[in-house]
Structure formats: C-alpha cells, structure tokens
Design goal:
With 374 residues, the protein is of the alpha+beta class. It contains 12 helices and 7 strands. Helix 8 (189-223) runs antiparallel to helix 9 (231-248), helix 8 (189-223) runs parallel beside helix 11 (268-333) and helix 9 runs antiparallel to helix 11 (268-333).
C-alpha cells in the first residue's frame, strides 16, 4: 500500500474518520517513491511520507492514521511528511491528526513569514527562508540574482512535517543523504530539523559566493579605463543583496535558541550540531555585511567618477569657449559700423586683424593644453 498515495487523499479531508476511509480505498495502488520533486504527481501537495524506525526507512504498511497510532503506542520511530504549498483545506486533516496549533498552521499555509522558531506545547515550529542563485549571462538593471522561498518544519516527538513554498529548495536529496547515515536519524525528528537548517545555511554560503563573483565583475567594470557603467546595475545588486539579507540575518536568533535553550523535542546531542550551523550562519552574515559596505563604496566611487567626467567636460567646453571669445570680440568691435575707427581703411588692416586673432587663439590653446583642460 502507498502511504504517500493515502496522504494525497488525506489532505482533502478535515476529520480523522475521513482519513481512515480514504486510506483504505487506496490500498491497491502500487507504492510510488516521491522523494524527488520530479516524481511528485501534479496537483498534489504531498511530496513524500516515510516512516523511520531506529534510523532506517521502513516499508509503509496500513494507512497513515494506523501508522501514527502504532508508533505512539510503541514509542518507537517517527514519520516524515513532506508537503509543497498546501491549501488550508488540504492541510486541515493533517493538522487534526498531529494536533498542530492553528496559528502555526496558518503561518505554514500563508507563507511569507520571517525566520523564527516557536513552541506550541510539545510541538516545535520553525520557519526557514530558502535562497537560490539565479544564473544570468550579464548583470543588468533588471536582472534577478537571488530567488527566495520558505520551508516550514513541524517537529514533534514522533513526527516531522515539512511544508515547502517556492520552486526551489527540494528536500529529496537531503532525505537520501540522511537515509545513507541512519545513525543520525536514530536521534529522532530533531536530527531532520538540524539537517534542514544545515542544508539551508549551506545554500546561503553557496549563494554568497556566487554574488561575490557578480560584485567583483561590477567592481572591475567601474574601475576599468574608459568604462561606462550603468548605476542601475549596482543598485539592482544592492536590492538583491537586501533580499538575501532578509533571509539570513533574522535566522540568527532562532538558531541560537535551538543551540542553547533546552527544548523537549531536541536531543541535547543535536544542540551541539545546531551550534555548528550557527557558526556557518555567522559567516554568511559577515559576508553579506561586507558585500553591502563594498557595494556602497563601489556606488560612491562610480558617482565620483561621473562627477569627475562631468567636470572634465565642463573644462573642455570652457576652454573652447574662451578661445572662440577672442575672434568673437574682435569681429564684434569691427562690426559696429562707425565711420572713424582705427585702421579701418588701411590696406593691411584685414591681414593684421586675422593674424592677431590667430596668435591669440593659438596662445590660449597651448595654455589650456599645458594645464590639462584640453
């Protein structure tokens, strides 16, 4: 029987009785591995549902309700249920089965939450912002550099429920990696929470490395000889960095709570692992802060270069205006049409005026060239 297939029906009902009824109808369906998003059926919010006992993945037997009741009775193993962008109606049956708090359920369905960790009785609710780097051939004023999503995690004594929002951040590879190390899964649902936190923070470091390459390219373009850089590229990079900052910075306090404060569903051994994740997050925060300062410096340098270029243009315009002012003044004086003007009827007067104008203009040109105005 396919427990994941049962869950696809479970999410459409709001009572445990309905869960049992639909689960029994699906017993003849072949089991489907949904650990990878490519295998997830279209239109279903359930990505996967797997049980673990002593760190080992166990075959699905019976419906979800029976499995959960059996685990709670025997006090062994846990269920990992993965969902992708469920609706309120789809999530209602699961919330009833695992006794999830309505406020946490609302946050998981609505998304757009700030990274946090909250406790509701014996259930821990954590929110992580996921990020991915958007590949682009050239950074422009409208390029998308960082794309964000969310992962909500419900952790209880015998269950883990992950709710993913966004097109990236699949947990399929993470599940396979955990299953290859059963000794970690023996520590219970908290081990899954740590693995998700570690996975999310590692993505932060990967994205910051990619963003650094974009910043380096912009910096080289700004300080290249004769380069003209669009300030919109720098501003767009700052906006994308702000999006990354909103995902990374607020996560510091939740990780600190998980690594220092005692939590009933988190094994003390796992807390040491959370301290390691917190150290990696600190590195990502420091990199983002350094990037922000560097982009401010690059933007100021770019604006200073624009100002210097404008000043150089104004000096050139001023120099040519001064040179042109000489013949303009002389021609203006001799164009006043007075009868008694010096050298007005002299045979060589025209040639002398032209010569004086030429010498004056040449002298001004050489002077401006020596001072660097031309």
């Amino acid at each position: 029987m396919s427990m994941a297939g049962n869950l696809r029906k479970v999410t459409s009902l709001g009572t445990v009785g309905g869960l049992r009824r639909v689960a029994r109808l699906a017993r003849r369906r072949p089991r489907v591995d949904l650990s990878h998003p490519a295998r997830s059926p279209l239109g279903s919010s359930v990505v996967n549902c797997v049980t673990y006992r002593e760190g080992v993945r166990t075959p699905a037997g019976g419906d979800l309700v029976d499995t959960v009741e059996r685990m709670r009775k025997n006090r062994e193993g846990f269920v990992w249920l993965g969902l992708h962008e469920p609706t309120e109606r789809e999530f209602a049956g699961i919330a009833d089965l695992f006794d999830l708090h309505p406020l946490a359920v609302e946050d998981a369905v609505e998304a757009h939450q700030r990274p946090k960790v909250e406790r509701y009785g014996e259930t821990l609710f954590a929110v992580f912002k996921t990020v991915c780097y958007v590949e682009h051939e050239e950074l422009t004023a409208t390029s998308e550099v960082v794309n964000t999503g969310e992962i909500m995690v419900f952790v209880g004594r015998d269950f883990v429920i992950t709710v993913r929002h966004g097109r990236h951040g699949s947990l399929g590879p993470l599940r396979e990696e955990l299953e290859s190390a059963p000794e970690q899964l023996t520590k219970g649902p908290a081990a899954v929470l740590h693995a998700i936190a570690d996975h999310v923070v590692d993505d932060y470091l990967s994205v910051t490395d990619s963003v650094q390459e974009d910043i380096d390219l912009v910096e080289m373009a700004v300080f290249a000889d004769g380069a003209r850089v669009d300030a919109g590229r720098i501003y767009q990079l700052k906006r994308e960095l702000l999006e990354l900052k909103r995902a990374v910075v607020p996560l510091g306090r939740p990780l600190e709570e998980l690594s220092t404060r005692p939590v009933r569903v988190v094994d003390p051994e796992i807390q040491a692992y959370f301290r390691d994740v917190s150290d990696h997050l600190l590195r990502a925060k420091e990199q983002i802060a350094a990037f922000d300062e560097l982009l401010n410096s690059i933007l100021q340098a770019h604006l200073a270069q624009v100002t210097v270029a404008q000043n150089e243009d104004m000096r050139k315009i001023t120099a040519w205006a001064a040179i042109i002012a000489v013949p303009t003044m002389v021609c203006g004086v001799y164009g006043m049409n007075f009868d008694h003007m010096p050298e007005l009827h002299w045979k060589y007067g025209y040639g002398m005026v032209i010569g004086v104008i030429s010498v004056a203009c040449l002298t001004l040109y050489r002077g401006f060239r020596r001072t660097g105005w031309l």
